[in-house]
Amino acid sequence: MPIKEGDTLPKAQFITMTADGPQPVDFDRFFKGRKIALFSVPGAYTPTCSARHLPGFVDKADALKAKGVDEIAVTAVNDAFVLGKWTEEAGGVTPLADGNGEFVKAIDLTMDGTGYGMGTRGQRFSMIVDDGVVKSLNVEQPGDFRVSSAEHMLEQL
Question: Is this structure's pTM higher than 0.90?
Answer without folding.
Answer: yes
